[in-house]
Amino acid sequence: MRLLVTGGAGFIGSNFVQHRLGSRPEDEVVVLDKMTYAGRRENLDGLPADRFSLVEADICDPEAVRRALDGCDAIVNFAAESHVDRSIEAPGEFITTDVYGTYVLLEAAREAGIRHLQISTDEVYGSIDEGSFTEVSSLDPSSPYAASKAGGDLVVSAFKQTYGADSLIVRASNNYGPQQHPEKLIPLVILNAIHGDPIPVYGDGMQVRNWLFVRDFCTAIETVLERGQAGQVYNVGGPDELPNIEVVRRILDLAGRDESLISYVEDRLGHDVRYSLASEKTEGLGWKAAVSFDQGIERTFNWYRENREWWETLRSGEYREYYLRQYGTELAGPAS
Ligand code: NAD
Ligand code: TYD
């Protein structure tokens, strides 16, 4: 297969491309990515040049998408503005990329008569106090990010319903692992712990997330791409649910730091209290998560410790300005 992987220079997309080119030695991958602050060429270093290429373009540009799609057998769409806090600060780009951009890709896939797999999130369902969301749970997004993803998902479903397009959706819980931008909780805590910076915990830190190691999500995506049915939604949840404060404590332990670094800060607006996904439908296709949180967090911590050059430039650029706007404090502390 030749896949068009949109948003493939970001966190999950680049892990998927690495996984796919390794697991399918005959396959080719074209990544189309706008290279926003979240897209990084380093994430795609070392891939086989005869089976991989990168096109710098916007998914909202129909001509660029059509050109990149030439000869491809499917689109896997990771491209999105992806951070809840940034969506609270400035929602416009989220609606453009996550809704309109998805529509542009769907049109191109329909024209070419190929499959479109939409990568989506549990956040479209909103918050759940008890039990887990299934694929038939209603959509009730809280943040502008979640609403933009829900909008994209509805366009995907409408394309199947209206035009009979070969489009389907996979919705995952919170991912973590190598190459995740430090705006997100786990890499933020790891890097702040390494540097001895205060660790901002929103509200009381008792919000629960259902953590999924990124390589487990990659195998789930592959399973759904190959065995999923058009028009269907597939949930992919991680094996462990933990309150944020517990996640922070585990990372402090790994870093050999004590809890004095924890700094409780003002809560996020519209903060969802708990996410939880039931994955039985995806497991029915033959997928199973293989990595527990204890294993995954140690692998992730070690990756950041050993890949200093990956994050050193990040901490000095746009992220530094964002951090100051978001937290009202400078990133401080030399790396130890
Ligand atoms: P990310 O922010 O790390 O990567 C997004 C990528 O999309 C970047 O490379 C960026 O440059 C690219 N991009 C943004 N706008 C674009 C545009 N207009 N055209 C082309 N490329 C564009 O995000 P991620 O964490 O890797 O998430 C990937 C996908 O998975 C997203 O759709 C997200 O909603 C979904 N998802 C993420 C999580 C998670 O925990 N990170 C969980 C469930 C679902
Ligand atoms: P995040 O990684 O932004 O993912 P999401 O909002 O998509 O779940 O946040 C995970 C959880 O961690 C969420 O409950 C918000 C919380 N959080 C903090 O407490 N402090 C922070 O600095 C960040 C970025 C997140």
What descriptors fit this protein?
336 residues; alpha/beta; Rossmann fold; UDP-galactose 4-epimerase, domain 1; 2 domains; three-stranded mixed beta sheet; 12 strands; globular; binds nicotinamide-adenine-dinucleotide; binds thymidine-5'-diphosphate
Question: Can you give a write-up of this model?
Answer:
This protein has 336 residues and is α/β, with parallel strands linked by helices. It has two domains: 2-175 and 213-236, 3-Layer(aba) Sandwich (Rossmann fold); 176-209 and 240-270 and 292-318, Alpha-Beta Complex (UDP-galactose 4-epimerase, domain 1). The chain has helices at residues 11-23, 62-69, 84-89, 92-112, 144-163, 185-195, 214-227, 244-255, 280-283, 293-306, 308-312, 318-327; strands at residues 2-6, 28-33, 52-56, 74-77, 115-121, 167-172, 175-176, 199-202, 208-213, 233-236, 240-243, 262-265. A seven-stranded parallel beta sheet has the order 3-2-1-4-5-6-10, sandwiched between helices. A three-stranded mixed beta sheet has the order 7-9-11. Strand 1 (2-6), helix 1 (11-23) and strand 2 form a beta-alpha-beta unit. The protein is globular. The termini are far apart. The mean pLDDT is 97. The protein binds nicotinamide-adenine-dinucleotide and thymidine-5'-diphosphate. Nicotinamide-adenine-dinucleotide binds next to helix 1, helix 4 and strand 5.
